Every structure is written in structure tokens, then in C-alpha cells.
Amino acid sequence: MQAIRSRAPIFLALLLVLCFIILDQMVGDWGRATGGFSNLVLFFNESLWPPDWSVIEPRSYPPCESNNLLEVTCSPAWIGMIETIRIALVSTVFGMVISLPIAILAARNISSGWLSYGARLVLAASRSLPSLIWAIFFVILVGFGPFAGVLAMTIYTVGYLGKLQYETIEGMDGTPLEAANSMGLSRIESSLGVVIPESANSLISQAIFMFEYNVRHGTVIGIVGAGGIGYEIKNNLAFLQYDRVFAYLLIIFVVVILIDMISIFARSFFTEESDVERPTWAGVFLPVGLTQVK
């Protein structure tokens, strides 16, 4: 072990050198990067700044049916962001319900070899294409709108979450499984009575993380017409309204940060280490040093 640790820096240095060599072969002409920063500054000043905050103003058409007193709920940004969150929530729940049985079949400590490899093949096929490609496929299949987004994100969630789930199941303590086998329990009884309860903390934590991921990536699939705030971004890009696009990006950034903070707080209640102190909201929003000041 000591020899491996001593060689780790050498291995990392060689790996970095190899990556730079490969990058140099791909780039070819490094001179193209010399004016990149100045071009970015020019584009930012002329096209992005200041952001067009009219995206949070009530839309004129189609008429908003909201009875809420807050006018922002009738804005394109609000409607698009809420639709993105809905797509992420529905696809995460559907994906989790579908992926868990497949993950149990894929776990080698539960299922036989041929059944395990078959289930893994299904999960690999689900995540072999990015959700953006799945979204294009379902837009062609069922048309524009959030339904295509839900289908695309659900398929990708099955593959991505299923892999995390069967790895968690394979890493669980084998003693409960051995006890279940000695009692003569069937595979279904062992899964429902032993595997899922023993792995519940990790499985729930993974589902919360998947929802967070789907919210972030759900903004992308809308660009191809699968609903959500990405659809609004696509429309503004078509008319070169970059200041409005920049406003949307800032809104997405804020919402993703908030969801990330809430996700961190929620996942902390499902960690396996029972002796770890649960964080407070102040600990989520503030650095550790500030929260420890008496």
C-alpha cells in the first residue's frame, strides 16, 4: 500500500502529460484561443449585459389563467421553471419505480449470472444515449411538449439510477441475505424484506440526488421542444435575444443552487452514519466556521 501511494504522484504526472499530448493533437492551432477572452468580453458587453428582466413580467399571450396575486407567476420564466421542476419530479418518481426492480435483478448477490447480465444490459441501453437524444426521439414520436420531456427523462433516469441502485445492493452486508437464504425465503421475499429495507437510506438519497440532476438537465431537453424553461431559451435564441437568454440562465442558476441546498439538507437525513450530527439550515447556507461560532 505504501508503494502504491508513493507512485501515485508519478502516475498522475504521466497521465497529465499524456492528456496534454492528446489535447495538442486535437487542437492543432493554439492561436485560435488567443482572442477568445477579448471576444467573450465583447459579446458579454454588447449582447448579454444588462439582462432583460422582462422574462419575469406577465406574458401577454396566451392569457395567464393563474388567480395568484403575484404577477410573476404569469411570467414565461416562472411558468417554464415550474414546468421543468414538474418534469423532473414526475420522471424521477417513474424512473425510480421502474429502475428498482431491474436493479434488484441486476445485482449479482441476488440474481443468477444470466439474469443479472440481462438486467444490466437493459440499464446500459437506457443510459447509452443522453437524455437530449431521447428527448429528440420522443418529440418526433409524441410531439412537442412536457410529455416528451417526461418520457425522455424517465428512460434516462431508469438507466442512471438503476446503476447506482444495483451497486448499492451489491455493496450491502451479506449477513442478512445469508440469514434470508437459510430461512428459505424466495427472491421476492428477500428483496422486499431484506434488500430494500437494508439499502433504503442509500436508495432514497440517490433518488433525491436524481431529482436534483433532472432539474438541472431538464432545462436542456426543452431546447429541442420537450417542454420546460429550455423551450423559452430556444425561442429567444432563434431571435438572437441574448439578453433575455442571459436572464433565463441567471434564473436557472439561482433555482439550481436553491434545489442543491435543499437536496443536501434532505439527503443528510438518509445517510447510514447514525452518529453524524444532522446539519442545520444555517450549516447549509453558511461556511462551517461561521456556524461554529458561539
Task: Please describe what this structure looks like.
Helices cover 72% and strands 0% of the residues. The longest helix has 35 residues, at 187-221. Residues 284-288 have low confidence and may be disordered. The chain is mostly helical and 294 residues long. The chain has helices at 2-27, 36-48, 76-106, 113-127, 131-142, 146-170, 174-182, 187-221, 229-238, 242-267, 281-285, 288-291. It has 12 helices and no strands. The protein is globular, with a radius of gyration of 24 Å. The chain has a domain at 77-268: MetI-like fold (Orthogonal Bundle). The two termini are 42 Å apart.
In round numbers, the mean pLDDT is: 76
Low-confidence stretches: 284-288
Give me the secondary-structure category.
mainly alpha
- Portion in beta strands: under 5%
Blueprint (SSEs and pairs):
Blueprint: H1 2-27, H2 36-48, H3 76-106, H4 113-127, H5 131-142, H6 146-170, H7 174-182, H8 187-221, H9 229-238, H10 242-267, H11 281-285, H12 288-291
Helix pairs in contact: 3-4, 3-6, 3-8, 3-9, 4-6, 5-6, 6-8, 7-8, 8-10, 9-10
